[in-house]
Amino acid sequence: MSKNFFEKAVDWGRRKSPWIIHFNAGACNGCDIEVVDALTPRFDVERLGLLQQGTPRHADVLVCTGAVTLQTRDRLKQIYEQMPEPKFVLAVGSCACTGGIFDGCYCVSGGIDSVIPVDAYIPGCAARPEAIIDAVVKLLTALEQSQKAAD
Amino acid sequence: MLMALFNIVIFPGLLFLGIYALFFAFLDRKLYARLQNRVGPPWFQPLADFCKLLGKETIIPQGADRRVFVSLPVFALAAVTTAFIYVPIWSVNSLFPFEGDLIVVLYLLTIPTLCFFLGGWYSTSLYATIGAVRALTQLFSYEVPLFMAMLAPAILAETWSISGISAYYAEHPLYILINIPAFLVAMVACQGKLERVPFDLPEAETEIVSGTFVEYSGRLFAIFKMAIDCELVVVSALIAAIFLPFHAANPWLGFLYFIIKTVIILILLCLFRASMARVRIEQMLMFCWKILTPLAIIQIIINLLVRGALA
Ligand code: SF4
Q1: pLDDT at B37
Q2: Which residues of A touch B43 (CB under 8 A)?
Q3: Which of A18, A75, A101, B74 sits a CA distance of 20 to 30 A from A111?
Q4: Is A122 helix (H, G, I), strand (E, B) or coil?
């Protein structure tokens, strides 16, 4: 069944206004600096409709950095559950993808995908701002394709 | 009956106000971006945000009172839209002018703030409660200078209706110069009403995440956002009607004047927003009570004296 006008408008809105929230699950702070860098006027992500939000309730994309420590595991899960559907997760940096250099540490449970489902992985230590923006664009393109496929 | 329905739903009611508010939101964000040397969002950005929020899941916190929580955004939007009906758009007169509509509009514009407060309070979240208390504290500080600044021109014009004030100053354009201090006070105080940057304490994203709106998501947040955007239009239209009463006899030309005037006010408001950082709550109270209020009182005294001299 093809979608009606309103569903199409909502789909279009979803592609054009990804609001993000940034969460540090136990990064060394290198990747966090890069995420903040990506939000500066120099990169101007607002041209893609991207806005940083303070609360998970307003966000569509959860941008996670760092390996998940045992301390943050429950918090990460809580924040993920607080976000309204539909929601996406970006894992920024090698640590977030796999656990990176912290993998196997006594206090680390692994990459972000050991706790919550991840939609896009951005490797790099630290991931460059360009890579982060590129990942967002790829995520939105993939979303568009899945929307088209569902239509 | 049909005409009234047209006025409420299409022009100058919900539909026109909504579209103009989205345009204003875009202009505001674009200007802000250009002032920061960025490219800024595309023209459809506020519309995309609105559509997306409408399609998102709406979460109601467990501790919240469901009925109040859901109805508050609608109340806020309804109050703002009602206020817009009493603001002149295409000519000197508004749709239903009556003696005292200035006061009615000012009070109607207070309702959204109260809705923000109640919304934050009923969310039963810690951040939302802090934001709610700040919203109310802020209300008591900017409301007094704002009201006095709006009433000072009314004293000179000897009428309490917005249309009457517009007509008076359109007849005596030079008297506008007397009201310049009141204009400045109103411009600064309305930043507090609109919760924009120097005075955006209730939603301060970096300290109390987003204050009163922390728990609002999806459709309810979309309506709240719409109410805020509409409030920006209504307040600039009100300031334009009172302080910049340049009108044309032709309704189309008058409408063009309306757009030019409100956009000028928006540019000024945006300059304020881009050039300032957020103040602390007690700094804001101090500023409003010690600087803005005395200025507004002086303006009222000047207007009373001028009135006496003219009589
Ligand atoms: S990927 Fe590198 S920079 Fe990023 S959190 Fe891990 S160690 Fe730090």
Answers
A1: 86
A2: none
A3: A18
A4: strand
pLDDT tens-place string over residues B150-180:
888 888 888 888 888 888 888 887 778 888 8
CA-to-CA distance for B149 and B184, rounded, in angstroms?
Answer: 9
The full set of domain ranges for chain B reads 12-310
Interchain pair A54, B51: CB under 8 A: no
Query: CA A55 to CA B213: how far, in whole Å?
Result: 9
Under CATH, to which class is A16-150 assigned?
alpha beta
Q: Is A16 on the interface with B (CB under 8 A)?
A: yes
State if residue A94 touches ligand 1 by the CB under 6 angstroms criterion: yes
What is the rounded CA–CA span in Å between residue A69 and residue A27? Answer: 9
Core vs surface per residue B36-75: b (16+ CB within 10 A) or e: eebebbeebbbbbbbbbbbbbebbbbeebbeeebbbbbeb
B206 within 8 A of B59, measured Cβ to Cβ: no
pTM: 0.86
B54 touches chain A (CB under 8 A): yes
Q: For the beta carbon of residue B3, count every other beta carbon within 10 angstroms.
A: 7
Q: Report the atom number in ligand 1 closest to the C-alpha of A126.
A: 3
How distant is the Cα of A93 from the closest Cα of chain B, in angstroms? 24
Neighbours of A104 (CB within 10 A): 9
pLDDT at B1 over 80: no
Instruction: Decide if A60 and B33 are in contact by the 8 Å CB cutoff.
Output: no
Q: List the single residue in B39, B206, B218 with the smallest CB-CB distance to A44.
A: B39
Measure the CA–CA gap between B266 and B269, rounded to whole angstroms.
Answer: 5
Other C-beta atoms lying within 10 Å of the C-beta of residue B6: 12
Nearest CB partner across the interface for B51, out of A13, A53, A54: A13
Spatial CB neighbours of B79, under 8 Å, sequence gap ≥ 6 = B108, B109, B111, B112, B115
- pLDDT exceeds 80 at position A1: no
* Residue B209 · residue A54 · CB < 8 Å: yes
Tokens at B267, concatenated? 């540019």
Chain A contact for B279 (CB, 8 A cutoff) = no
- The residue to mutate among A125, A128, A132, having the most atoms of ligand 1 within 8 angstroms of its beta carbon, is A125
Contacts of B144 (CB under 8 A, 6+ apart): B288, B289, B293, B296
Q: Cis omega (within 30 of 0) on the bond before A86?
A: yes
* Domain locations in chain A as residue ranges: 16-150
**Tens digit of pLDDT for each residue in A37-81?**
888 888 888 888 888 888 888 888 898 898 888 888 889 998 998
Q: Are B117 and B132 in contact (CB under 8 A)?
A: yes
Q: Return left, alpha or beta for A84; rule: phi > 0 is left, psi -120 to 50 is alpha, else beta.
A: beta
